[in-house]
Design a protein that fits this description.
This protein has 13 helices and 16 strands. The protein folds into three domains: 83 residues, no CATH class; 257 residues, Thymidylate Synthase, Chain A; 60 residues. The radius of gyration is 31 Å and the shape is extended. By secondary structure, it is α/β, with parallel strands linked by helices. The strands form four sheets. Strands 6, 7, 8, 9, 10, 11, 12 and 13 form an eight-stranded mixed beta sheet that branches. A three-stranded antiparallel beta sheet has the order 2-3-4. The protein has a three-stranded antiparallel beta sheet with strand order 14-15-16, covered by helices on one side.
Length: 439
């Protein structure tokens, strides 16, 4: 057998190296079939008996590798006549093809994901679908399993701003309802006294646990320095804190430490965004309520800021006083997105059945609502002579941003993907189709 290993595609795939290792090293039986003993992953269907594989290695191998087409053809011609006189090493063998089981979990990245949606309900269904399709199943410390993705960012762009305007679908398929959220919001916004053996609330951690009201301090920081990137609230107790439990112990020394650890506020063009980091997040049972609670905190901060700034501006106006800070400070803040980062984004195994039913009934409806407002921009596809041209325009003004020109459609697409990695997958696929029309 002669193998050609002459192109960069050959080198990239490693197929010739793997085939050579098959004849030299053999195979091992694994859960995925016969695995070739090679640094390059290669498999043979388990339906092929081991003795047949060994006969192939004995009578067909080894493989002779050539690094150029010319040498490969020349060598093949040299050995063609002698080979034609050889007898077959065995009778033809036919093995039935086993239909593979359809996997419910697809290959995918474990670390770093992003979900975007208008409201909590839409994002939640997309989250559950992503975890069930690509999450890793692993044991927990509670004699159960969960399916997990690591570092899942969710961007909620247009959720309501209070309990009355929060979106609950009809019929409600969320893991919480309006009444539950009503009772949950005080756990995020309000303080409570520490009592040994009684679980913390997020409000307690934010309002008094560290000896200061972090929500009030954050609002004051925004008023003083609206462009600051250090408007932070922390809930994790690293120890040495004379308040809270009073014994200076850390959360590492106690069970039931807070899942929400960090909140960051940022003003951009008068919009206040809130980013919340969860070390561990039950995405089925807890995330919707978490999101509504955080949105309520975002509302409280914006309303308090606006009220205080309005009062301050009125006083300054009455006294004809202004400062550089007041001139730069937004007179009022509007709602930016709510962003959650779930470091361990998981679904417990006792919820998988409910999640799968929910995905089956709701996910298709959500993904059918196509969007055509890719923030990356719009592309105008043209052909001039033998060259393809893709012009990126600003999605708001229509102004031309950059042009990509090449005689190769693939080069155009490669440039777009490299320079605009956040382009929506559906948009990229559409561009490929449109460029194909120019061929």
């Amino acid at each position: 057998m002669v193998g050609l290993n002459a192109t960069k595609e050959d080198a990239n795939s490693g197929s010739i190296k793997c085939l050579s290792d098959f004849f030299s090293n053999g195979v091992d039986l694994t859960d995925s079939g016969w695995k070739i003993r090679s640094e390059i992953d290669g498999f043979i269907d388990e339906e092929i008996p081991g003795y047949v594989i060994e006969r192939i290695r004995t009578f067909v191998g080894p493989i002779i590798i050539k690094e150029s087409r010319e040498n490969c053809v020349k060598f093949a011609k040299q050995i063609a006549n002698p080979i034609s006189s050889y007898k077959a090493w065995g009778e033809p063998l036919i093995f039935p093809i086993k239909e593979p089981e359809v996997s419910k979990v697809f290959p995918g990245e474990l670390y770093g994901h992003i979900i975007r949606g208008k409201n909590v309900a839409e994002c939640w269904v997309r989250i559950l679908h992503l975890i069930r399709k690509t999450g890793v199943v692993r044991p927990t410390s509670h004699d159960s399993q969960w399916q997990e993705l690591i570092d899942l960012m969710t961007v909620v762009t247009d959720e309501g701003t209070d309990l009355d305007s929060f979106y609950f679908p009809e019929p409600n398929y969320l893991s919480c309802d309006r009444e539950f959220v009503k009772s949950y919001i005080p756990q995020v916004l309000e303080d409570s006294q520490y009592r040994e053996g009684v679980k913390y609330t997020y409000g307690q951690r934010l309002r008094s646990w560290f000896g200061a009201d972090q929500i009030e301090e954050a609002i004051a920081k925004l008023i003083r320095e609206p462009d600051s990137a250090s408007c932070v609230m922390s809930l994790w107790d690293g120890g040495g804190n004379s308040f809270g439990r009073g014994d200076s112990s850390s959360d590492h020394q106690h069970g039931g430490s807070p899942c929400l650890n960090h909140i960051w506020l940022r003003v951009n063009n008068g919009l206040l965004s809130m980013t919340a980091i969860f070390r561990s997040n039950d995405m089925f049972s807890a995330w919707p309520a978490n999101a509504f609670g955080l949105r309520s905190l975002q509302t409280h901060i914006i309303k308090t800021y606006n009220s205080r700034v309005e009062s301050t501006d009125t006083i300054n106006s009455n006294y004809h006083f202004s400062s550089s800070i007041n001139q730069e400070r937004p007179h009022s803040l509007k709602f930016g997105p709510l962003i959650t980062i779930s470091q361990s984004a998981h679904i417990y195994d006792d919820c998988w059945h409910f999640v799968d039913n929910l995905i089956e009934n709701q996910h298709g409806k959500i993904v059918k609502k196509k969007r055509y407002n890719d923030p990356v921009g719009n592309f105008i596809i043209e052909k001039e002579g033998d060259r393809f041209i893709a012009t990126l325009t600003c999605p708001k003004s229509g102004k031309q941003i950059v042009k990509y020109s090449s005689s190769s459609p693939q080069m155009i697409l490669d440039n777009i993907i490299v320079n605009h990695p956040e382009i929506q997958p559906s948009h990229a696929a559409y561009l490929g189709k449109e460029i194909g029309k120019c061929l």
